[in-house]
Write a structure and sequence with these properties.
This protein is mainly α. Helices cover 75% and strands 0% of the residues. It starts with a helix and ends with a helix.
Length: 288
């Protein structure tokens, strides 16, 4: 049993390290690519009409060019920054909205709790991609609109997790003692509940980020994400769809691999973080 537990711990540690490395690499690419384009060391992601259309990978274009002669490598690199930017904005906004709503709902209860639970459960039962497609269709194309659509999709997940934990923690003796001594709701929420319910948010954030990358790619593939002038993996895959049967594989391969590796890294990071937090919680309970 100890050998199995040690093996799982080692595996989770390796997954976390791989996840951190992949996410840091993508973040570095996202930061450097615009600088290199601005310095003229890389071609513009939307420039390329003078280049051969559908040129195969070569020394001049490592990943080939697409139907407009644009460099696939540059668009793939630039797409990492777009993906991270949209996902980060969406999930931070969902966290800022979902966590306070969950805490207030779980702590106060009553009609407010029932109303919020009904609303969030209704949103939660809808498939993520379907809800995001509807919202993106209503809001229209654009980076802020895509981020807003993803934000609404993930608010219920933060709400449900935080609300359930708040309802459990508020029944603890130290919370009851604070309330009996005259502590107000805002003080109890900030001083006693927040630190106890926030521990699960980092894991949920990383796992949602992996899912959000795929959802953003799905929106782009359906033509509902970002304008074509913005390099985005999903829209590039949609444009490459008609070229694949003719043997032009590179326009779909590199954006697809880039999306897969980022999702894999975020998933590794989330799973490793969850294992680490679970192990830390076990140690604390055993020592108490």
């Amino acid at each position: 049993m100890r050998l199995l537990q040690s093996g799982l711990t080692t595996l989770s540690g390796r997954m976390a390290r791989w996840g951190v490395g992949i996410v840091l690499a993508y973040s570095l690419v996202a930061l450097l690519t615009p600088l290199l384009i601005h310095a003229g060391l890389l071609p513009d992601a939307n420039a390329g009409l003078e280049n051969p259309i559908y040129a195969a990978p070569s020394w001049g274009h490592w990943c080939g060019t697409d139907r407009l002669g644009r460099d696939v490598c540059v668009r793939t690199l630039a797409g990492s920054g777009v993906a991270l930017q949209v996902v980060l904005i969406a999930l931070v906004a969902a966290l800022v909205v979902g966590v306070p709503l969950g805490m207030v709902s779980g702590y106060l209860g009553g009609w407010l709790d029932r109303t919020l639970v009904l609303l969030m459960d209704t949103l939660y039962t809808l498939p993520v991609l379907l809800l995001s497609v509807v919202l993106a269709f209503l809001l229209g194309k654009g980076l802020p609109n895509a981020a807003a659509a993803l934000c609404v999709v993930y608010i219920p997940q933060y709400f449900r997790v935080v609300r359930n934990q708040t309802a459990q923690v508020k029944a603890e003796l130290f919370v009851e003692a604070a309330r009996s001594l005259g502590a107000g709701p805002l003080w109890v929420l900030r001083r006693y509940l927040l630190r106890n319910v926030i521990t699960s948010v980092p894991v949920l954030l990383t796992l949602n980020a992996a899912d959000a990358v795929l959802v953003l790619g799905g929106l782009g593939f359906l033509g509902l994400g970002l304008p074509e002038t913005i390099p985005e993996w999903g829209s590039d895959l949609q444009q490459a769809l008609t070229a694949i049967p003719t043997g032009i594989w590179w326009t779909a391969l590199f954006p697809g691999v880039a999306m897969f590796v980022l999702v894999l890294g975020l998933s590794f990071l989330g799973e490793g973080l969850e294992s680490w937090l679970s192990g830390s919680g076990t140690v604390r309970r055993s020592q108490s």
